[in-house]
Amino acid sequence: MTTRIGVVTFPGTLDDRDSLRAVRLAGAEPVSLWHRDKDLKQVDAVVLAGGFSYGDYLRAGAISRFSPVMETVIDQARAGLPVLGICNGFQILTESHLLPGAMLRNNHLHFICRDQKLRVENAETAWTADYETGQEISVPLKNIDGRYVADERVLDELEAEGRVAFRYLDGNPNGSLRDIAGITNAEGNVVGLMPHPEHAVEPLIGTGRTDGLAFFTSVIKKLVTA
C-alpha cells in the first residue's frame, strides 16, 4: 500500500503545492488537507507547509494553532504520527506546544530569502533518517519571523537530548539562539525547521540541488518499516 502524506492548507499558506509535489517526487501519495476539516483522511504523516497563515496576525502561527485540523494533528502527533513543520509550520508547532520555544522577528528586522547551508545534527528522527549526522546540506530559506528562542533550560535540554535537528552554517541568518535551524520532539516523530526542504527536491528549482528530498524519503522508509 502506498504511503499517504497529508499537507495542510491554512488561509495564507504559500507552499502547500510545493510540499505536495515533494511528497509525490519522493514516492508517496500526496493528500490535501483543509484547515477547517478535522478528518486527516487516514494519512500516515502530515506536513504543515510554509507561508503566512492568517496573515501572521497576533503572532506567526498563533491563530492557525486553533484551526480544527490542528486538534486532530496534535492528538495524533502525541500518539506517534510523523509531523513536519516547515517555516510557518514550525511556528505553528511551537504555538501548539508540540515543540518547545518560540519564533520571533529576525534580529535584523528584515525579510530574508537565500540559499542556506545547514548541518544535520540528528539523523535519527522520522524525517531525517536518510541523512547522516554531520552532513551539510543547502536548502532555501525565506522568513521574517525566523529567530528561534527558548530559555537556557530548554536550550540545554535540547542540546543534551540530541533534539537539535539542524544548525545554521556560514552565518546565522536571523539571530536564532545557538544557530538552531530546526528541532525535534523527544520521540523523533515531530520535526520543525525554518528552511524549506520542499524547494530543494529537483535540479530545476530552488538551489538546483535535491538536498531536501531526503526529508520525504526518510518518513516513507520509516513508515514502511514500522
TrEMBL record:
* This protein's UniProt keywords: ATP-binding, Cytoplasm, Glutamine amidotransferase, Hydrolase, Ligase, Nucleotide-binding, Purine biosynthesis
Top-rank lineage group of the source organism: Bacteria
Q: In its keyword annotation, does this UniProt entry include Nucleotide-binding?
A: yes
Q: What is its EC number?
A: 6.3.5.3, 3.5.1.2
Q: Which Pfam families match?
A: GATase_5
One of its GO biological process terms is: 'de novo' IMP biosynthetic process
Q: Which organism is it from?
A: Streptomyces jumonjinensis
How is this protein named in the record?
A: Phosphoribosylformylglycinamidine synthase subunit PurQ
- Which residues are annotated as active site? 87, 196, 198
Report the function annotation for this chain: Part of the phosphoribosylformylglycinamidine synthase complex involved in the purines biosynthetic pathway. Catalyzes the ATP-dependent conversion of formylglycinamide ribonucleotide (FGAR) and glutamine to yield formylglycinamidine ribonucleotide (FGAM) and glutamate. The FGAM synthase complex is composed of three subunits. PurQ produces an ammonia molecule by converting glutamine to glutamate. PurL transfers the ammonia molecule to FGAR to form FGAM in an ATP-dependent manner.
Subunit info here reads: Part of the FGAM synthase complex composed of 1 PurL, 1 PurQ and 2 PurS subunits.
- Coiled-coil spans are none
The record lists the catalysed reaction(s) as:
L-glutamine + H2O = L-glutamate + NH4(+); N(2)-formyl-N(1)-(5-phospho-beta-D-ribosyl)glycinamide + L-glutamine + ATP + H2O = 2-formamido-N(1)-(5-O-phospho-beta-D-ribosyl)acetamidine + L-glutamate + ADP + phosphate + H(+)
Key word Hydrolase present in the record? yes
- Pathway it belongs to? Purine metabolism; IMP biosynthesis via de novo pathway; 5-amino-1-(5-phospho-D-ribosyl)imidazole from N(2)-formyl-N(1)-(5-phospho-D-ribosyl)glycinamide: step 1/2
Q: Give the CDD domains listed for this entry.
A: GATase1_FGAR_AT
Gene Ontology cellular-component terms for this entry are: cytoplasm
Tell me where in or outside the cell this protein is found.
Cytoplasm
GO molecular function ontology, one term from the record:
phosphoribosylformylglycinamidine synthase activity
Report the gene name.
purQ
